[in-house]
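# step 3/5: fold
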Amino acid sequence: MITTQPATFREVFAEPRFRAVFLARTVWMAASTVQIATLSVMVYRDTGSSLLGALAFGAGFLPQALGGIFLGAVADRVRPHRLILGGYLLEAVIAATLALVHPPVGWALALVAAVGVAAPLCNGATGRLIADTLTGDAYVLGRAAVSMSSSGAQLVGLAAGGLVVGALGPQRAFLAACAGHLLAALVFRLRPARAASPAPPSRPIRDGWAGASRLIADRAVRRLLLAQWLPPAFSTGSEALLVPYASTRGWPPGAAGVLLAAMPLGMLIGDAVMSRLVRPAVRERTVPLLIALLGAPLPVLVARPPLPVALVLLAISGSGLAYLVGLQRPFLDAVPPDARGQAFTLLSTGMMTLQGIGPLVMGLGAEALGPAPAIALAGAAIVLIGLMLRAR
């Protein structure tokens, strides 16, 4: 266990169990990004619908509510490495199915949605494994490192996905995603990160519901959950509209991929600054300001700025997601140690579910108002959340 404070990234990566999680998670995120981007582009190309394109972007998010709420107790009762490894292999099967079977749009969305039910267990097990391995400021840096690697992996995934889809078609892009998921499983399997666990719950659904209810009933936990759920939901909703936004602006086909990469790039930079250059106490105080920064640039897209300016605005917006670094330690302190797995499962569930609702709501708004006004409304909502949090 790492307890030194303040921590350094060298200390964090000296932990072999954390390295296993970090490397596998990075590869998995790149593969998942390729898969999501490919599905969104394919659906929008086949249907021409902004709503369906946005829905494809978040199809795997919304169903996670079922798994997170009713199966969350499993994350504290089953060895984390089993849940994580199983999640990677399941994703590989889905990517291979999309590539080889090429189901109709409706079936493809349903398949991705069904797999989303199991995703919170993998995410909760990952969060629990990090919390059990790192402590204090090392834990905050570890979570920030995972977040930064996820942003970098999204950049790679979006670039690779755009190139493969454009040059070789969706089927080969899905096969590339499948290979990435298998590689993540292999990396994690070769560096097993095991943790002792009590016996699995005899009544997982009832225990999962009871545990989730207990966590949400805690006022401090509930507020921290909402603070981590709502802004990313609106941010993802606006991000899901960047493909139709680029189309309405008449930009070349490759512009959509570049726009999608701008926000993860901004998040990568923001996380790096917050985790290494800002003191822990200051991180927590700047949370409302960074939330406002996440939303403020988005309404400017209504003014139809040129592509370079739009990229800068989206990167600035993405940097605001670094506010999540300031909530890591307060959330861990507020959660009972024996419920960490379920707490992280619930956190992931809420984030993913609302990030599934976000694209759906924003897609409906885009159908009625157009992509740019819908993105602007999402940005205004994020700013309002930041102001409300600062007031409290």
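# step 4/5: annotate
The mean pLDDT is 82.
# step 5/5: archive (pending)
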